[in-house]
Specification:
Length: about 120
């Protein structure tokens, strides 16, 4: 039993060390919802959707099946965290859309920056 405990400890330690290595992808530290947003945006990029990095509350509603209010709260939180950037529409202060933060756009294409032009 002591041997099994020692092996389990070694395995857990090695897994922890792998997840904290400098080779980890930058989005691995994001909360799961934000990782899922990145997955949705990647699908848009692959489908060559126009403005794939732009999202609205209605997108979050359809992606996650949440209410409009919940979607807006999530977007505000993500904007505060720097994950997304609000886009002010018109002459007022109303935010209708958000764009993915530049650091995440760059992370998407760090190995192939030519795809940003698509």
């Amino acid at each position: 039993m002591a041997q099994a405990a020692t092996e389990l400890k070694l395995k857990a330690t090695s897994l922890y060390q792998k997840s904290t290595s400098s080779d980890a992808l930058p989005w691995e530290d994001l909360p799961r919802l934000q990782q899922q947003v990145l997955t949705r945006i990647l699908a848009r990029v692959l489908d060559q959707v126009e403005n794939p990095f732009v999202m609205a509350a209605s997108d979050v509603v359809s992606w996650f099946g949440v209410s409009e209010n919940t979607a807006r709260e999530w977007l505000k939180t993500w904007a505060t965290d720097g994950f997304i950037t609000p886009v002010v529409a018109g002459s007022g202060q109303r935010v209708r859309y958000y764009t993915l933060g530049q650091q995440w756009v760059e992370a998407f294409f760090q190995n192939n920056p030519s795809q940003l032009a698509k």
